[in-house]
Each structure stands twice: as C-alpha cells, then as structure tokens.
Amino acid sequence: MIANKNIFAALLLLFFLSSCDDRTTFVSMPLVFEGSRLVISSYLSPDSIVKMYVTKTYPLDEVDTILSNYEVTDATVQLFEDSIFIENLVYQNQANYISPSSKKPIVGKSYYFVVNAPNFETTYNNPEKIPEKIPINSYIFNDSVGIYNSGIYNSDALEFNQTVSSLIFYVNDPPNKVNFYSFSTPLYGADLNEMPFDQRSDKIAGCELSGYPLSISDKCFNGLTVAFKTDMFPFQEGYNIHNYQGINITLQSLSENYYRFIQSREKYAALQDEIFAEPFNVYSNIQGGYGLVAAYNNYYQQINF
C-alpha cells in the first residue's frame, strides 16, 4: 500500500499560500491515480511454512483502515524453488496465502513467486536465497557492571541508582562472503506486557548498528570472531534483572534483500513527517508491483539465571 508524499506536500503548500492572501481563490485539484498494483510480501525462514501476503495499492483519497478494502482474495500465487514450480499457495484469510503442503524453505535454495490476479499486472520477485544459520559459539553474562548513567547511554530513562547488566556473545563470521545480521535479547519469565527494561548495544567491531530493527553487515569483521554486546537496565523502580528467569538470544542471519529493506525502513520512518523532504521509497525487490520477498535464518540461545 503506497501513498504519495509529493501530492500531500503540494496540497499543503497550496493551503499555506492561500492562507496568506485573502484574494487567493481555492482551486480543486483532482488526485491522479494511475491504476492499482499488487503489493506482495513474504518472509522466508526454514522454521516457518511458506506464506504470501497479497494486497493492492490505493489512491490517496481512498485511504481506509479496513483491511478487507485492500486485500486480494482471488490471486494465483505460484511458488518456485530453484526455478522449479512447486505448488500454488491457497488463500487462507486476511490477505494471507499459505503452502497447502506445509512447505518450508531449504537453506541454500532460492525461491520466487509469480502472482496473478484479475485486472492486475503479473507481479513477481527476484529469486531469494535462504541464508545459512550462523551459531553463537559462546557468551558472557554479567548481572552487574555498574550503576546506570543516562549520559553514558544517551538515554532519557530516569536515574534511580539502578544496576546495569551486560551480555556479550561471540560469533565466528563466515569468510569470503558478505553476511548480514540482526539480533534481539529479550528477557523471559515474567509478564511480557510489563517489560520495564531498556537495552543498548555498542558498535560491533567499530561499525554502527542501524535500521529497524537494528542490523549490521560484516564489512568491519568479515571472517573474524566478533563480539555482540548489549547492556540492560530497568527504567522503572522496583525491578532488577533477577525479576526474570533468563534471556532468550535470537541471532538472525539475513539475506541482502532483507538487510536493505531494514535500512530503508529506518530512513523512511525518519522522513515520513518531513513533508518538504525529498521523496524516499522503501526498498523493494518486486517486479510489476510493490512489496518484498526476503529471507532469514534464526539461531536461538537461552541463558538461564
């Protein structure tokens, strides 16, 4: 679903100019819409059954919050593995199509979809390869490395002499190819709706984490053993790390398409309220429409306190 920020900016500028002069005459400007296109998205992982989400674009003057106005329920979604046709996905609900054979992607193989629907252009993605799972080879957890200081962490959390905990885990980055990573370190064993902990990660081998969620390429540590570090501290009084049972680490190995999308999404979010900024498109690897087909592989490590 795509909205054109240029149109909105132009209309707002006209409104601003007209408000400065009582002699200005308001002119009705019709919104130009060149026809609806398919929007397809699929996130492929060896741990998950293949799914595809199919919706359509809309004109700016028809924006609605009701999903049923945008979902496409009569599409033909063909799945290919290493250029060999596998099956048609079947419609499930709420714009989701799913593999009828419960097909899961295989590491090292590539996948693409061809999507057709009445009155839409044929839409497909460039082949997407499933990355290898990259393990965590060791970790160090220290439940007390000092007292929180907002200046050090560039954070606006209140200071009440809370204890900072530290987690470092080590990864052997595969050599001779570019690798992309994202990771998360949520606490577990308490009410997940009440998670009063902030987590801040350092640079990794001198390179900044960026994107949404935070991610990084291995340009600073290709082929080396690298340390991923996260500090954790409560931002509500009455909590400490031992209110929880442990930490669930998830290290994601990302495809390049997924990494580029994550990076572009952060830039788009930063500009979405800047109506006079140069237009910026979120990264897409879709032909004939919009969206993303991306791949990832998760490695899990649980730390019990």
Describe the protein's architecture and organization:
There is one protein chain. 11% of the residues lie in helices and 38% in strands. The strands form 2 sheets. Strands 1, 2, 3, 4, 5, 6, 7, 8, 11, 12, 14, 16, 17 and 18 form a 14-stranded mixed sheet that branches. A 4-stranded antiparallel sheet has the order 9-10-15-13, with no helix packed on it. Residues 1-33 have low confidence and may be disordered. It folds into 2 domains: 5-130, Immunoglobulin-like (Sandwich), CATH 2.60.40; 136-254, Immunoglobulin-like, CATH 2.60.40. It has 305 residues and is mostly beta strands.
Task: Compute the CA-based radius of gyration.
Answer: 23 Å
CATH architecture of the largest domain: Sandwich
E-strand count:
18
Strand content: 35-45%
Provide the fold topology.
Layout: H1 5-19, E1 38-44, E2 51-56, E3 76-81, E4 84-93, E5 96-98, E6 110-116, E7 123-125, E8 128-129, E9 136-147, H2 150-153, E10 163-172, E11 180-184, E12 187-188, E13 197-201, E14 215-217, E15 225-234, E16 246-254, H3 256-271, E17 286-287, E18 290-304
Parallel strand pairs: 1-18
Antiparallel strand pairs: 1-2, 2-5, 3-4, 3-6, 4-5, 6-7, 6-8, 7-17, 9-10, 10-15, 11-14, 11-16, 12-16, 13-15, 16-18
